[in-house]
Amino acid sequence: MVKRKLNANDVPEASPAPASTPEPTFASLGLEPRLLRGIRDQKWAKLQPVQAEAIPLALQGSDILCKAPTGTGKTAAYLLPILHGVLKRSQRGTSALILVPTKELALQVSRVAKSLAAHCGDSIRVQNIAGKESAVVQRAQLAELPDIVIATPARAIANINIGALQLMDLAHLVVDEADLILGYGFAEDMENVAKNIPKGVQIILMSATLNTELEFLKSLFSREPKRIQLEDDDKDAHRMKQYMIPCAEDEKFLILYALFLLKLIKGKSIIFVANVDRSYRVKLFLEQFGIKSCVLNSELPLASRLHIVEEFNKNIYDILIASDETEILGKRQKGGDTEKDAEKPPAKKAKSDKDYGVSRGIDFLNVSNVLNFDLPQTYKSYFHRIGRTARAGRTGTAISFIIPKDKYRKHKPTSIPECEHDEEVLAKIQKHQKDGQKIENYGFDLKKLEAFRYRFTDALRAVTRIAVREARVKELRSELLKSQKLSRYFEENPETASQLRHDQTLNHPARIQPHLKHVPDYLLPGGKKVEDIGFVGLDGDKEKRARIVKRKGRVVRGRNGKVDPLKTFNKRGRAKK
């Protein structure tokens, strides 16, 4: 028999509801106080789901295989336990090795680590060796036995082979963006790293997807890790609006111009294109109308690429054109991903800059729009691209231009082979959409843009193949000069580097036509017609040219006040005075 609780007046009352379990916080995880101060500096209000699951497991020393969407806080999920472990160690030495696929991501991770350890003084030393420093410089950096080393697999194994990177004290090995590591041609390097790490090292694999590459890495280190698998929240699916615009090849440029001119999209935008030439063609085209943009591609020096990302995140400019050519390994495959392709071992990439990547890893802050000017090769790349927007609870828009087969190769100056299979890739994208997500037709009425066609044609004609090539070479030379002569100076004076701008006009391979920048109201959809203002003189004096002959009834008087007989007649004869 259950006894009822009586109050002071011997009246039965309901038992109080059991206290709800409080949400975990950074402080409740038992992290070192100095790290909590670093977290407070980052203004992180609460734990992200991946952090709430991964940090306690990592602090216990468990191996972890974590799959979580891009932008969910995976970097802090493995950095905080590592930093906590370093502070608890009594001996000095390299205790953590963090492997990433790109140089940009290596710099990003090192900056986050240093920010979190800002109140730890010399107790934590972080060294990034993914840059282009010489072997002598990196040997000197590693000779100081930094606590945490961040590198690409190629750089890590190169320094291991020459004895510069010592792993006898290693306690943690992290592979960030693990599913990309093998796709970037690091399979052999990862095998060599696995042979050189001591037994008992904690293994943490972080990824946005679970695929055959990730399973290969898991088997490489022969462990049974704790699995953490977080899917996209259904609410997040509704924050992302996806649209497609079927159009002809040359109409891509017209629609892009209209989207920015008519302010159909607002906020910061990333425009993804198929290759480097394409990025400069789009930049030069937008410059014709006074629209500022910036190009980011693998040809630019690493310091320039990183600075471009920083300036974009600081809202210095709002349009970034990215040539994410790392996801096109050689020639475009017909139809995109296939089951046979997934079974093959990861192929090595041709050397351009295999440590470069845009659609994955790097944090682009507050991106409102992703424009797939050229549809990517595979549906996976599409989802990685659009993952740049609608992050951290914000809304976002993804717009993709689709070339139907009947319109492919109809305008050769703007045609590229990468667009031949757009419809097939689109079908795969639609097939792999998650619940609550779909691609809608934007319903763009091209008839309303007929008034812009002559301007668009003039601008596109000015952006010749020679102009694109000259722009590409000119910016490359400029950035190389800055990188070689000023890199040391900028290292010592980082505030000066922020004064560089990457959205400058390219002085100027394409012929700039000033009249294209001004668009009369009557050309705008729904705009009003120009009023009949009468006769305007053609003399050079602006004040005189501004004077307008006023019509009073049917009589037209000139500037001297006399009646102008040539403008006073009508079809019935001379007008009355």
TrEMBL record:
One Pfam family cited in the UniProt record for this chain: Helicase_C
GO molecular function annotations of the record: ATP binding; hydrolase activity; RNA binding; RNA helicase activity
GO cellular component, one term: cytosol
Residue intervals of the Helicase ATP-binding domain: 55-228
Residue intervals of the Helicase C-terminal domain: 239-450
Superkingdom: Eukaryota
Main enzyme class: hydrolase
Bias (Low complexity): 12-25
PROSITE patterns: HELICASE_ATP_BIND_1 (PS51192), HELICASE_CTER (PS51194), Q_MOTIF (PS51195)
rRNA processing among keywords: no
Compartments, record wording: Nucleus
Residue ranges occupied by any DEAD-box RNA helicase Q domain in the UniProt entry: 24-52
Signal sequence annotation: none
Reaction(s) this enzyme catalyzes, per UniProt: ATP + H2O = ADP + phosphate + H(+)
Segments carrying motif Q motif: 24-52
Keyword annotations from UniProtKB, A to Z: ATP-binding, Helicase, Hydrolase, Nucleotide-binding, Nucleus, Ribosome biogenesis, RNA-binding
EC number(s) per entry: 3.6.4.13
Chain spans, region Disordered: 1-26, 331-354
Gene3D superfamilies per record: P-loop containing nucleotide triphosphate hydrolases (3.40.50.300)
Swiss-Prot/TrEMBL GO biological process terms: gene expression; ribosome biogenesis
Family membership noted in the UniProt record: Belongs to the DEAD box helicase family. DDX56/DBP9 subfamily.
PANTHER family for the chain: ATP-DEPENDENT RNA HELICASE RHLE-RELATED, DEAD-BOX HELICASE 56
Biological role: ATP-binding RNA helicase involved in the biogenesis of 60S ribosomal subunits and is required for the normal formation of 25S and 5.8S rRNAs.
Name of the protein: RNA helicase
Species assigned in the record: Sporormia fimetaria CBS 119925
Lineage: Eukaryota, Fungi, Dikarya, Ascomycota, Pezizomycotina
